[in-house]
Amino acid sequence: MFETLSDRLTSVFSSLRGKGRLSEEDIDKTAREIRLALLEADVALPVVRAFIAKVKERARGEEVSKALNPAQQVIKIVNEELVEILGGETREIRHAKNAPTVIMLAGLQGSGKTTLAGKIVKWLADQRNTPLLVACDLQRPNAVTQLQVVGQRASVPVFAPQPGNGVGDPVEVARQSVEHARLNNNNFVIIDTAGRLGVDAEMMQQAADIRDAVQPDEILFVVDAMIGQDAVNTAQAFLDGVGYDAVALTKLDGDARGGAALSIRHITGRPIMFASTGEKLEDFDLFHPDRMASRILDMGDVLTLIEQAQRTFEQDEVEEMAGALASDTDFTLDDFLKQMQMVRRMGPISNLLGMMPGMGQMRDQINDVDDKDLDRITAIIRSMTPGERLNPKLINGSRRLRIANGSGVQVSDVNGLVTRFFEAQKMLKQMKNGGMPGMPGMPGM
Ligand code: GDP
User: Fold this and answer.
1) Strands 284-286 and 272-276: what pairing?
2) What are the structural domains of the chain?
3) pLDDT at 119
4) 212-216 long-range contacts, Cβ below 8 Å, gap at least 24?
């Protein structure tokens, strides 16, 4: 899902890594690259234009935070704009004041309506609702049987035309189904309607007639994400022909590009409510724009981490620390202690490390990092004299024993810390040459 776009954006961001600040030229170049990435992902042109204009405006703007380096700032902006373009808030189902809540599905044949109907009823039933599935696709041979099979798999009753009882008239079937639901305490009615292979006036009319007969609480336009740009045209045709409240995207599992998902909200003004990611009834959820954006950016929880850093640290603290790291004088044990205390304020260390991208495979080592280790390090550094902290090379054998006694640890612990500190100092020197993220790091860990 969205692999193409993810890969492209990741490489755009990595080219910003190590930059101290973004020049006008950097912003233009980055915007051009993001634009290409979106076009390649088959995102509709007006959406691309709006997106790029927004990102450029914000990248130039004053809101730039000193707690983040340029690459992080751009990622943050792109992430927020992606969330926006995907619809912002998660769109929940609107419930009818008086049950049943009626949901009508409309879309082309093969878009995945019947499958989606099964997924919705299963999802609703799992949340202790009592949905009723309604077969109003009386055109396609086997459509009713297919819906009955789906209903059986989801353990949900199916309302289908009875012989001699309005057979062949989907509008009548829909009307009767709502009555049936009322009598049988079904609090949701999901109506599957007939689709055609292409946009067709007769199909639109039938859907509009069903809509007028039952006045659904939600009309969902169901669309196959794999058809890319075509989804946008079809979406517009259904908007004009039937109208709808929200969109259900199907077959996202087969959509490497993501053009439909990223375009449809902007073009139609209707939010995406559901995303379907496979043929099984379980492959389904409400569509969460924020989670989808994180997935596209392949960022792990790094955004949460960035926000947490911003929330935790005062701007001047960040600047002071960044200054200490960037200055030509050596990084001292005092800096080390201060930095460690800053990082600790963000929460348990294993949680923090777990949020870094790529740390998933290191889960075991992460769990070994204990907050008590940090307490011990703090105690050791506090037992040193100011001179020793400034110049740890002074710390000879007898001083080590004194420090160990003063902080209640073994001499080997003091040795370990001093060794790790020198390694960190060396690493920092190397990083200064290659550029350094603006966030406090954790040398020696
Ligand atoms: P309808 O004509 O709109 O009712 O479409 P169907 O529900 O019959 O679906 C058409 C085909 O798409 C079927 O083969 C489904 O198994 C398949 N399908 C539906 N939803 C998904 C999905 O989310 N992912 C994948 N991979 N296939 C799907």
Assistant:
1) antiparallel
2) 3-85 (1.20.120.140), 101-288 (3.40.50.300), 302-434 (1.10.260.30)
3) 94
4) 213/171, 213/174, 213/175, 214/102, 214/104, 214/174, 214/175, 214/177, 214/178, 214/189, 215/102, 216/102, 216/103, 216/104, 216/191
**What does the alpha-carbon distance between residue 130 and residue 187 come to, in Å, rounded to a whole number?**
6
Q: What separation in Å is there between the alpha carbon of 293 and the centre of ligand 1?
A: 24
* 111 CB near ligand 1 (under 6 Å): yes
pLDDT of 431 > 60? The answer is: no
Mean pLDDT over residues 381-407, rounded?
Answer: 91
Residues paired with residue 103 on neighbouring β-strands, in sequence order: 190, 218
Alpha helices in 41-186 (DSSP H): 45-60, 70-85, 113-126, 143-153, 170-183
Cα of 262 vs centre of ligand 1, distance in Å, is 21
Do the Cβ atoms of 148 and 204 come closer than 8 Å? no
Tokens of 317: 């603290």
Query: For residue range 354-371, what is the model confidence (pLDDT) as tens digits?
Result: 555 444 444 455 455 566
pLDDT of the residue at 102: 97
